[in-house]
Task: structure prediction
Amino acid sequence: MGTKGKEIVGVDVKKLIKMLNKAYADEWLAYYQYWVGSQVAVGRMRGIIAGELMEHAQEELKHAQMLTERIITLGGSPLLKPEDLLEETNCGYDAPTDPNTRKLLEQNIKGEQCAITTYKKLLEYVEGKDPITYHLILEILEDEVEHEEDLEAILADMKAPVK
Ligand code: FE
Ligand code: FE
Ligand code: MG
Result:
């Protein structure tokens, strides 16, 4: 990053890189949870749900990419070892050991809710101090809010009485 670009980052850069890496860990685990969930899904509305999970997986991977780019620009390095992902994650990993579509929806809604909380905190940390990171996190947060909404809507459809 250039001299002036660095100058306008008004937060503790080391702490910011650490927070971005924790979110990065969440994104990889969310990616895998969605991806593998879409493979093993069984039960009601399987086609629709597997498709939605796969779409979300691709978006989580895109978030990981966005975070890496910012981490590197700030002079940091993304986590390099898979075991570091589990070490650093905020939201953890919920294995789809029960592949029922309803269970998968519930697990992933929980994950999205954790992601929303995490990004809200990050947003507050950089607000008014690092406009570039703020913009990036806001973009990701918008996607997470949409993800939660999508999954809750499908779950509501699933629970609706058949007429
Ligand atoms: Fe994400
Ligand atoms: Fe998401
Ligand atoms: Mg969606």
In short: The chain has a mean pLDDT of 97. The first helix runs from residue 3 to 7. The two ends are 60 Å apart (CA to CA).
